[in-house]
Amino acid sequence: MTQVEVSPEILRWAIDRSRRPISAFERKFPKLSAWLRGEAKPTLKQLESFARSAHVPVGYLFLSRPPEEQLPLPDFRTIAGSEMGRPSADLLETIYTCQLRQDWYRDFARANGEQPLDFVGSAKLTDSVPETAARIRRRLGFDLDQRRQMVTWSEALRQFLAQADAAGVLVMVSGIVGSNTRRVLDPKEFRGFTLADPLAPLVFVNGSDTKAAQMFTLAHELAHVWLGRSALTDAEAKSEPAHDVERWCNQVAAELLVPLAAFQAEVRSRAPWSDEAQRLARIFKVSTLVILRRMFDARALTHKQFQDAYRAEAERLHSLAGSSQEGGDFYATLGVRVGRRFARAVVASTLEGHTLFRDAYRLLGIRKEATFRSAAEKLGVTF
Fold it and tell me: Are residue 24 and residue 101 in the same domain, yes or no?
C-alpha cells in the first residue's frame, strides 16, 4: 500500500494535543515508534485512523510543522498563578461546537423577532458587587426565601439552571465532548466559559466537575454575561484571581449565591467551621464550598484556615461524588447537555421545516430520526 510522508514532529504534536498517554496509541499503532523516529511511514488509511484517535483534522498531519491553535475567546484560566498552556482537543472542540450552536440560535432568534436581552453587557467593573448580584437575582427569580424551602442544594442548583435558561441564557452543562462518553472533559483544564451575545448569550459549565463546584461556576459565568465579556475560566470559590474581571466575577458570584448581609446575620463565628458550614449550607441551599468562601469574606476564618478548610472539604465532596462520567437516560440529560431552550428551539424549527434534520442531529448530538422524535416528545414539542 502507498505510504505517505508525515513529519515525526507533527505526530508528536498530535499525541501531546490529545492529552492521552503515548501507550494508548502504541497499542493501536504498533509501528508508531518507527514513525516517530522517521524509520517508517504510515499508509493513508493508517494516518486517517491515527487522526481519528488523536481527534485532530487529518489535514493538519500533512503540515511541515505544528499549527498554532489559538483559543477563540479570552483565556482567564490560571494554575498557581501561571497561565495555562496549549488547549486540548477536547476543549477546542467543545468551544467550536458551542459557537456553532450559538450562531444557529442567533439566526433563529432574529428570524422569530426576538429582541436583544437588555441585561447582557448591562454591568461594569465599577458597579457595586451587592447591587449587581441583586439585579441578577431579581432577573432570574433566584429568590433566597424560595431556596430556603427546598430540600437540598442540589435541587436549588437545578432550579438555578432552569431560571437562567428561562431568562434567555443558553445554559449547557456537560462533562463529555459532544455525545462521546469516552472523551471526558477535564475540570483541571477548565471549569466553564461564556460566549457573550445580546441575542444568544451562552454559558457552558464543565459537568465533570463536582455538583458543588458547578453552582459557583454557573454564578461566575452569569456575571460574565452581565458584563458582556466572553471568557474561558477555571473559577472556583476559593480562588483570588489577579485579573480584575475574574476577581469581580468571583465576588458577584459569591454575593449572588449567599448575600453577605444575610450570611452575617446567620453565622456563628465561634462554632466549629465544619459544623457551621453544614448548617449554613442547609439554610442557604448552596454547597459547603460556597459557605466556606463566605465565612472567609465575613472574617469568620483566617486566610490559612479558609484555604485548609476548603481543600479538605473539596476532597471530601470529590470522594463522595465518585465517577463524573455522564450516563443514564439520554433524553433526561439532553436538556441539560445542550440546554432546554436551545433543544426546544432546534426541535421546533426542524419540525416546522426551517432546519434540516441532518443539521438538527449535529446540533443536538444525535444520529437517528427515532432518537430525535423521542427527544421532541420528552421536551414537550408537539408534531
Answer: no
